[in-house]
Design brief:
This protein is α+β, with helices and mostly antiparallel strands. Strand 1 and strand 2 form a beta hairpin.
């Protein structure tokens, strides 16, 4: 279904000068694994849309190996989704995506899931490692003596939360059916999205009456069912893949820290009071921990501050709407003189001379 463009714009997206949808980059620098484009590709084919028209060759092509440690900015992924929704008019597109989901679309995560000894083990792995596929995802395992389930959360707003939830919860049900057969039926399914026009599609797909307008996106099964040994189990493969995913998750979290610090530095620069302590508070790490994580990535707060200032200085000086004093304040300097001295060190020229030379 094409989401209302007015609604999307209210979430921070917009329409460019050509009338096309554009996804605006968020400050959380979230990333996705390119293997997800395999699912997008398959969905487009089911709607008789040529995937090559929407997915750039540099992003994905069938048969091309995509390492589990390969990531792209989430805004590029959602930009492709936005383009697809301009040609697909189907409120159940997320359910359609779930219905054609294959383990290979989720790279090593999908293969690990198929080797899980029990559903409960698969649920634990999903909670631990799903962020390797989309760093914006947070999944919580909820369990008591009678039932076990996964609750899907997000660190920041998705441009298409209803579609994402349909695909994620629907995909979870499909993976359970890979292991238990088409007769698999969950105990309950909850979705935050509003009741769709044709709710029968959702109820038929899950096999239960779906709760819409729910407080969370979740699916639950009976605990005894979740602990049953699976016929597809291969413990050695599962443990090996799980360990690889855990390592990839740790590496992703560390690399994302650099991107998040850069974004927060850029956001705070105009205040003139950018400090490691303030950045650490925003990214929710103790100052010493953040310092250590940046060091492990071969950088530091001071180096990132310098890099961000150089990048923005080059960008702003080419824009004649800004004078040198305005640029100085936008980059967090207390006066134009301090900025000019720094600019000369970076580029070998004073700002005005550089502007004359390059514009």
């Amino acid at each position: 279904m094409k989401e209302s463009l007015d609604a999307l714009c209210s979430k921070g997206h917009g329409i460019d000068e050509f009338g096309h949808f554009r996804a605006v980059k968020n400050n959380n620098a979230s990333s996705v694994n390119p293997s997800l484009f395999g699912l997008v590709w398959r969905v487009l084919e089911t709607y008789q849309v040529d995937p090559c028209d929407l997915i750039q060759q540099s992003l994905y092509r069938p048969g091309r190996a995509e390492p589990i440690r390969s990531f792209i900015p989430a805004d590029e992924y959602y930009g492709v989704i936005a383009g697809a929704l301009q040609v697909i008019d189907d409120e159940a597109v997320g359910i359609r995506a779930a219905s054609v989901l294959h383990p290979s679309h989720l790279d090593i995560f999908g293969h690990a899931w198929m080797a899980a000894p029990t559903l409960l083990a698969g649920f634990h792995m999903t909670q631990d490692c799903l962020s390797v596929l989309n760093s914006d995802l947070c999944v919580h395992l909820s369990a008591d003596s009678n039932r076990v389930g996964l609750v899907y959360l997000r660190h920041c707003n998705s441009p298409f939360p209803g579609i994402d939830a349909d695909c994620e919860i629907g995909g979870l049900a499909r993976f359970c059916r890979f292991q238990f057969g088409e007769s698999f039926t969950p105990l309950s399914v909850s979705l935050r999205r509003p009741v769709p026009k044709n709710r029968a599609i959702w109820d038929d797909y899950f096999g239960v009456s779906v709760q819409f307008d729910a407080p969370d996106n979740s699916m639950f099964v009976g605990r005894e069912f979740a602990e049953r040994h699976l016929p597809t189990a291969h413990t050695e493969i599962f443990e090996r893949h799980h360990a690889t995913l855990a390592q990839a998750r740790a590496e992703l979290e560390d690399s994302d820290i650099v991107a998040r610090v850069r974004a927060e530095i850029q956001r705070q620069l105009p205040t003139g009071d950018v400090a490691l302590e303030k950045i650490a508070e925003v990214v929710q790490f103790p100052t010493r921990t953040l310092h250590r994580k940046l060091s492990q990535q071969g950088t530091s707060f001071r180096q990132l501050l310098r890099e961000v200032r150089i990048k923005l200085a080059r960008q702003y000086i080419r824009d004649e709407r800004y004078n040198v004093t305005e640029i100085a304040f936008m980059l967090g300097y207390c006066d134009a003189g301090a900025f000019t001295r720094a600019f000369r060190e970076w580029f070998g020229d004073a700002p005005t001379a550089y502007r004359t030379r390059v514009t």
